[in-house]
Each structure stands twice: as C-alpha cells, then as structure tokens.
Specification:
The protein is an alpha/beta fold. The chain is about 30% helix and about 30% strand. It has six helices and twelve strands. Strands 1, 4, 5, 6, 7, 8, 9 and 10 form an eight-stranded mixed beta sheet that branches. α1 runs antiparallel to α2. It binds 1-O-pyrophosphono-5-O-phosphono-alpha-D-ribofuranose (PRP) and uracil. The site of 1-O-pyrophosphono-5-O-phosphono-alpha-D-ribofuranose (PRP) has 21 residues, from β5, β8, α4 and α6. One of its GO terms (biological process) is pyrimidine-containing compound salvage. Its cofactor is Mg(2+). InterPro entries: PRTase-like (IPR029057), PRTase_dom (IPR000836). It comes from Malassezia cuniculi.
C-alpha cells in the first residue's frame, strides 16, 4: 500500500533500509524466538520514538549554564501507555525506556480464533486517564476489531479520541480503513502496511501470530 492511499489519520515510519531489514528478520519463520524478541524490540523502540512526535508541545524557556536564556519547547500535558494484551505488553519496555515512570494501563482482548471477533476480558487503567494523552500499544492491526474495541474502552473512560495515538508494527489496509471509519480522530502510527488480510483474517505477508512468536516461540 502506498502512503498516498493511507487514511488521513494514519502515518508510516520512514521506510528506511534499516527498518526494512529489521522487519525482514522478524517475518522469517525460521528466526528463533530470541532473535524475534531482539529485533522486534528494536522496531518497537523506533515506533515509540516516532509516536512521541505526535504529542503537543508548548514554548518553554530555560536558563542555560552560560547565563543566556533559551526558548525551546516542553511537552504539554501528561501521558500514559495502554497495552492490548497479550502482544501489546511487548511494547511496554520501549515506552518505559523513553518515558521514565510512565503509567501503563492494560486491556485484555483476545480474538476468537475461528471468527476473528475480539472479546474483551478486562481493563485496568489509570484513574486519571481522561486527563492524559494515551499511547495505545498493539503490534498487529489486522481487521482492526481489537484496536477499535480498546478505543471504545478508552472513550468510555473519558479519553477523547483525538488524545489517542495508536502504535502498531504491521497494519493491514483493511484494518486501517476500519479504524479510520470508527475513529478518524485517532492518530495511527504503523511501522509497515502490508498487502491484505487472508481468508482467516491474518495479515499477509505478515509474520504469523505475534504473541505466540514473542512469548512461546
Ligand atoms: C492479536 C494482535 C491484536 C489482534 C489483531 O491478538 O495482537 O490484538 O490479534 O487482530 P484484529 O485487528 O483482527 O483484532 P490476539 O487476540 O491473537 O491475542 P494475543 O495478543 O494474545 O496473541
Ligand atoms: N494477530 C497476529 O498476531 N497476526 C495476524 O496476522 C493477525 C492477528
């Protein structure tokens, strides 16, 4: 999918040779679990860094050691992460590495293996989440059902859709369209956009079941 046909709320990471190479490693079915974890953690780190570029900043002046003031910017408002379990939990470490002491909520959603319909099991979110920007974390966006259900949970807890930034590693065009139709105000940042969904609603070419590869090898 070329970037020209991405929905207006979606962006991709710069499609660099490095990113392409990292993704090639984790797509390889012969990549062992330890390498899958190492290289997907590297991609996630790039994704989280890019996601932070969508947070608003305000002008902020500091005094430098030279005694001269410097007018720069500071992040405006507080953030939190929310991971969609299980696979989204793999993205928490990178967020903690770049945002010290960040609060992280969790939403457990599982796709029915036969129908691909998402089922919500529980949500544990910061009490003040309605006052925060939310980085929603899940590496795979297939039909979009799980992401949309997680966004429904966030909105039911008072989060404004325009304060949600959804970070995912591999998206399908169908999933991006479905998220766009449901929540056009949510910013979606994907590392890569693949060709399509299979008849079993897996991303093609994709990398298989992310949670199984990261957690069970
Ligand atoms: C995977 C993935 C997403 C979802 C994507 O999770 O991590 O949450 O499927 O599919 P969708 O866009 O069609 O909803 P899964 O439910 O398999 O659970 P897991 O994280 O435990 O592997
Ligand atoms: N979940 C995954 O882990 N991979 C897919 O391709 C679709 C859903």
């Amino acid at each position: 999918m070329g970037s020209s046909v991405l929905p207006d709320n979606a962006v991709r990471l710069p499609q660099t040779p490095q990113l392409h190479a990292l993704l090639t490693i984790i797509r390889d079915r012969d990549t062992p679990r330890s390498d899958f974890i190492f290289y997907s953690d590297r991609i996630i780190r790039i994704l989280v860094e890019e996601g932070l570029n969508y947070l608003p900043v305000d002008e902020h002046t500091v005094m430098t050691p030279t005694g001269v003031p410097y007018t720069g910017v500071a992040f405006h408002g507080r953030i939190c992460g929310v991971s969609i379990l299980r696979a989204g939990e793999a993205m928490e470490t990178a967020l903690r590495e770049v945002c010290r002491s960040v609060r992280i909520g969790k939403i457990l959603i599982q796709r029915d293996e036969r129908t691909a319909q998402p089922k919500l099991f529980y949500a544990k979110l910061p009490d003040d989440i309605a006052d925060r920007w939310v980085l929603l974390l899940d590496p795979m966006l297939a039909t979009g059902g799980s992401a949309i259900q997680a966004m429904n949970v966030l909105v039911s807890h008072g989060v404004k859709p325009e304060k949600i930034i959804f970070l995912n590693m591999i998206a399908s065009p169908e999933g991006l369209q479905n998220v766009w139709k449901a929540y056009p105000q949510v910013r979606v940042v994907s590392a890569w956009v693949d060709s399509k969904l299979s008849d079993k609603n897996y991303i093609i070419p994709g990398l298989g079941d992310y949670g199984d590869r990261y957690y069970s090898g």
